[in-house]
């Protein structure tokens, strides 16, 4: 029997600072940006776009880091592994995530790329267009891992955004091996369809090898991974390769499939409606993972995820503003 856990979830992911500003559709057209998409920028491109953005809010971000912030807000025990540089944005990231109650031990790196940042443009229809400069985040190496920290977490959570770079991918593979050797579970989120096509074969191989126990995706991502147009056909094609698949389905809600059992929940509604969809999937994963760490069934875990996602889209930014523990206490 595995020893007692010190953390509910430990994530490895992009350590970036989110820079969020409003923009109109005309600005996106001028910049050649596709609304709702995600693109990768180099340092020069990030500097140029940042200079053209309107007044912005800067907070520590990154998909998996947002999920850990959500877990901490829900009362869970969360940790994060990610690389920042020894610079001002690195200090912002480190301070913010620790202040939220997330364990963050990764030392800053000197002499390489600056800390990564994600320039997020939110249009009046609440769609977010993400422009990411990876920076130091993609200089993470296996040497930055703390094996005891991995062994002490019930679930290791990995994001596909970071999977695209060789060094971080090697670190993630090593972390998965450590986690499974310690009897822990591994969760993987597909993050964005742009992450999937270049790495589809190796992702499928990873699933077939039993490296992942829980797979998170949205409808577009699960179809892209399976290379099928129909969502349910895609889930059917993959469900024998991974014990648990969780799929968010937009206005339809979300569903989970585990060993032939299929459970779905509708969306939750909080506040006045949708303001900014940034972080919706991240906070849904936070709620679901907390439910699983607490031993909840699939339906309850999905409902916690739906409430956490509904809270995050009711305001700007990808970090909770309401008391998530209070919102989910009746579940």
Order of helices and strands: EEHEHEHEHEEEHEHHEHHEHHEEEHHH
How would you describe the oligomerization state of the chains in this entry? single chain
CATH superfamily: Ribokinase
Helix content: 25-40%
CATH architecture: 3-Layer(aba) Sandwich
Largest sheet: 9 strands, mixed
Number of DSSP E strands: 14
Distance between the termini: 29 Å
Structural notes for this entry:
There is one protein chain. This protein is of the alpha/beta class and 331 residues long. The protein contains 14 helices and 14 strands. The protein has a single domain, classed as UDP-N-acetylmuramoyl-L-alanine:D-glutamate ligase, CATH 3.40.1190. Helices cover 38% and strands 22% of the residues. The strands form two sheets. The protein has a nine-stranded mixed sheet. A hairpin with a 5-residue loop joins strand 7 (116-122) and strand 8. The model has no long low-confidence stretch (mean pLDDT 93).
Observed structural traits:
331 residues; alpha/beta; UDP-N-acetylmuramoyl-L-alanine:D-glutamate ligase; nine-stranded mixed sheet; five-stranded mixed sheet; 14 helices; 14 strands; 22% strand
SSE order and pairing:
Blueprint: E1 7-12, E2 16-22, H1 25-30, E3 38-41, H2 43-52, E4 57-61, H3 63-73, E5 78-81, H4 88-99, E6 103-104, E7 116-122, E8 128-133, H5 147-151, E9 153-159, H6 160-163, H7 166-181, E10 185-189, H8 193-196, H9 200-208, E11 214-218, H10 219-226, H11 231-238, E12 244-248, E13 254-258, E14 261-265, H12 280-293, H13 298-312, H14 324-328
Parallel strand pairs: 1-5, 1-9, 2-7, 3-8, 5-6, 9-10, 10-11, 11-12
Antiparallel strand pairs: 2-4, 7-8, 12-13, 13-14
């Amino acid at each position: 029997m595995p020893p007692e856990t010190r953390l509910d979830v430990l994530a490895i992911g992009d350590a970036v600072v989110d820079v969020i500003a409003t923009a109109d559709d005309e600005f996106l057209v001028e910049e050649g940006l596709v609304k709702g998409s995600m693109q990768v920028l180099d340092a020069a491109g990030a500097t140029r776009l940042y200079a053209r953005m309107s007044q912005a809010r800067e907070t520590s971000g990154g998909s998996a880091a947002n999920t850990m912030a959500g877990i901490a807000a829900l009362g869970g025990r969360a940790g994060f592994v990610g690389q920042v540089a020894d610079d001002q944005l690195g200090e912002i990231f480190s301070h913010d995530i620790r202040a939220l109650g997330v364990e963050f031990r990764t030392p800053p790196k000197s002499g390489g790329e600056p800390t990564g940042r994600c320039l997020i443009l939110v249009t009046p229809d609440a769609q977010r267009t993400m422009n990411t400069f990876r920076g130091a985040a993609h200089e993470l190496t296996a040497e930055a891992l703390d094996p005891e920290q991995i062994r002490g977490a019930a679930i290791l959570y990995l994001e596909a955004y970071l999977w695209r770079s060789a060094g971080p991918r090697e670190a993630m593979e090593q972390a998965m091996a450590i986690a499974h050797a310690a009897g822990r579970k591994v969760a993987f989120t597909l993050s964005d369809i742009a992450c999937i096509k270049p790495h589809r074969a190796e992702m499928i191989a990873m699933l077939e090898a039993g490296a992942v126990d829980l797979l998170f995706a949205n409808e577009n991502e699960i179809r892209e991974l399976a290379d099928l147009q129909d969502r349910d056909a895609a889930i059917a094609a993959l469900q024998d390769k991974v014990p648990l698949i969780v799929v968010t389905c937009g206005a339809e809600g979300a569903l989970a499939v585990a060993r032939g059992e299929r459970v779905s929940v509708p969306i939750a509604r909080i506040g006045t409606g949708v303001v900014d969809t940034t972080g919706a999937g991240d906070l849904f994963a936070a709620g679901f993972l907390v439910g699983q760490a607490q031993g909840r069934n699939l339906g309850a875990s999905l409902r916690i995820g739906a409430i956490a996602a509904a809270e995050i889209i009711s305001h700007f930014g990808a970090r909770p503003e309401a008391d998530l523990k209070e919102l989910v206490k009746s579940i």
